[in-house]
Amino acid sequence: MLILLNLIIKFQQETKLEMILSQIDVSKFANSLRKSSGSKGPKGYEPTSLIYALIAMQVEKIQTIKDLVQKLKENPVLRYCCGFEVLGKVPSESNFSRFLDKLVETDELEKLFHELVIKAKELNIIDGDSIAIDSTKLNSYEAAKPKKLL
Fold first, then answer.
1. What is the pLDDT of residues 105-118, one digit of tens each?
2. pTM summary value
3. Domains of the chain: total
4. Is residue 142 included in any domain, yes or no?
5. 148 domain residue, yes or no
6. CB atoms within 10 A of CB 20
């Protein structure tokens, strides 16, 4: 059954998400986030798959991590595109939360952004003459810290 499902997915027309993910090289980025082979504890999920899932969240306009986890559970094609096992478990909200904490601690995200801008310039997607700043309000999902702790 698993082999049949993989074959069906493989021969489907490439989705917008697959086209986007095929153009983004996250290998250096993922390597910097990967656990060392000597570390103890559970192996965890492959950083590349977690990064792809976060990109998929934006491409598919999924609003929250909770919704992303639910979509990954329900949709084997999305799991496959992100690199998770088609019939396997998917990361929980807390897995994504810990992964996002790791992302914040590195400067790899900024490097990846600069690489993507350069690639977009080379492909004439952008010309680099104009700068736009998005000032959209972002809702925080954390409780406010008391002033005495600041």
1. 888 778 878 888 88
2. 0.70
3. 1
4. no
5. no
6. 15
